[in-house]
Amino acid sequence: MYDQYEALIFDMDGTLVDSGQLHEFAWTATLTRYELPIDRAYMRSLAGVPTKGTLELVMQRFDCLPCASLDEMNDFKENWVHENMHRFVRPTALAEVVKQYHGKRPMAVGTGAYTEEATRILTLCGLASYMDVIVGADQVKNPKPAPDTFLYCAQRMGANPARCIVFEDAPLGLLAAERAGIPAIDVHQVLNISNDYFL
């Protein structure tokens, strides 16, 4: 079905991995601990934004003065995810596409998560060994919605970005693919994959 593309690039959370509950509980715990408002619709709109960026946007939107440093809040959320990911994550139906194209096309994960976290989650889901490249937000200067993540995936695979295909679930991720000049599939609309959090 995707034979015309030179390489495949997957977002992770909400696309290749069902991790909705994990992130909902992690964000609820973090925002509650640091006395920040929980606006479910706004949190959904920030899907794909790295943790520090999300915290900064939440504080800006609600004009909050932080009761702790950005690093402390980031570490709390990331530690919560690390300690609980094994309870919640599982592969989505896109795992079948990954298995189908393993060894036939280079494949990458380009995610707003940090690389270490992404590697652990993909390993728990049995998907890490299928990936040629894993690019987390810590590997690029400007994470999604900037194009850097997907362009770096293509670069590391030695692929022409215009000949790749991106699988995404989040509006900001789809915008990142558009800015990178890479065709993209909205997995919500095309593949009926959905694991939104903060519903």
Explain this structure.
With 199 residues, the chain is an alpha/beta fold. It has 2 domains: 7-19 and 89-190, HAD superfamily/HAD-like (Rossmann fold); 21-87, DNA polymerase, domain 1 (Orthogonal Bundle). Helix content is 46%, strand content 12%. It has helices at 20-33, 40-45, 51-61, 70-88, 95-101, 115-124, 148-157, 171-180, 187-190; strands spanning 7-10, 17-18, 90-91, 107-110, 133-135, 164-168, 184-186. It has a 5-stranded parallel β-sheet with strand order 5-4-1-6-7, sandwiched between helices. Strands 2-3 form a two-stranded antiparallel ribbon. Helix 1 packs antiparallel against helix 4 (70-88). The longest helix is centred in the middle third of the chain and has 19 residues, at 70-88. It is globular. The mean pLDDT is 93. Keywords: Hydrolase. One of its GO terms (molecular function) is sugar-phosphatase activity. This is Beta-phosphoglucomutase family hydrolase. InterPro entries: B-phosphoglucomutase_hydrolase, HAD-like_sf, HAD-like_SPP, HAD-SF_hydro_IA, HAD_sf, PGP-like_dom2. It holds the Pfam family Hydrolase.
Short description:
The protein is an alpha/beta fold and about 200 residues long.
Largest sheet: 5 strands, parallel
Q: Overall mean pLDDT score?
A: 93
- With helices defined by DSSP (H or I, 4 residues minimum), what is the helix count? 9
How many E strands?
A: 7
What's the gyration radius in Å? Answer: 16 Å
- Biggest sheet, strands in spatial order? 5-4-1-6-7
CATH architecture of the largest domain: 3-Layer(aba) Sandwich
Structural class: alpha/beta
Write down the overall geometry.
globular
Domain module tally: 2
Enumerate the spans where pLDDT stays under 50 for 5 or more consecutive residues: none
Strand content: 5-15%
In the CATH hierarchy, what is the superfamily of the largest domain?
HAD superfamily/HAD-like
CATH first level of the largest domain: which class? Answer: Alpha Beta
Q: Terminal Cα separation, in Å?
A: 32 Å
| Helix residue percentage | 40-55%
CATH topology of the largest domain: Rossmann fold
Order of helices and strands: EEHHHHEHEHEHEHEH
GO molecular function: sugar-phosphatase activity
Pfam family, one: Hydrolase
Protein name: Beta-phosphoglucomutase family hydrolase
Keywords: Hydrolase
